[in-house]
Structure prediction request, 194 residues.
Amino acid sequence: MTIHPTALVEAGVEIGSGTSVWDNVHIRGPATIGSDCIVGEKTYIAYGVTIGDRVKINAFVYICTGVSIEDGVMVSAGTTFTNDRYPRATSSDLTALRSSDPDEDTLETVVREGATIGAAATIGPGIEIGRFAMVGMGSVVTRTVPDFGLVVGNPARHIGSVCRCGEPLPAGAEVQCERCGLAYAVNDGTVRER
Prediction:
């Protein structure tokens, strides 16, 4: 494990072997980061976050409370996760600052194994990003992304499917990746491995 001297890792944070935490990262406790991960510079990871093994988190990523990231995920630079369905700074009469603690409007987000989130993407609250899905750079994700789904845009829309290796899959019901040869069955936007 490597932790840069400028990183702030609070009490209660568990970090697995082989993980590197780079400069000016802030990880709030309690949080869990698995083995063989990379946490890029100036990234913020809130309390209660769970990150699996072999996850790459690039620079300037904001991961808020309520986010779980499974094994083998790529979170590209400048990605922002959100968790509040109705964000407000104060009470409705503006007389009191609202607590930052989770409440009934704090929604959980899960990024399933092998998924990739492109640079500068924004992930809305209560979202699930499916296994090996790919979110295009700059996308604003406002709804769940299916396994192997490829989404782009603002708001992000489903434009196709990708292989485990990341290559876009050709159209059809029975397809084979042109890059690595893995086979898939595609039925009404649902992708199953063969």
Notes: The mean pLDDT is 96.
